[in-house]
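re: that chain from earlier
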Amino acid sequence: MPAHAADMKIGTVNINKVLQSMPELEEVSELISEEFAEPIQRLNQLEEEFEALRERVARDEAIMTDEEKNEANQELRARAMGLQRSGEQLNQYIQMRETEERNRLLQKIYTAIEAYAEANGYDLILDYNRVPFSREAMDVSDQIIERLLD
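^ sequence. v structure.
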């Protein structure tokens, strides 16, 4: 090992632990729930309408003509596909927003890590979850959490 490497001050941080300790994480969850409450409610309403139609078709099937049965089944398939598409789109939008907010929080964590490293003379701080081994004494996660909560 080169001589300068032996003089390095190295630490690790558990990014997930730090992220989970942030009060903003719960706020983000609430924000996204509020942001998507109306679209989720609309999707639930469409699902209820679909179920009501399906029950009506099942109930009235015995008295329907073949043409009415075909039309009803086509409408059920079309609505089922529409519901599936809408649900998938909504899930994608929610995941996209969650990723945006998570990235914002991660940037805040990285800034705190950098400031902590500078203030305490660290040459390198690694993500604890990405190194095969590190001593517990190298973990600075709690200090980063304290820095973020101040």
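The chain has six helices and two strands.
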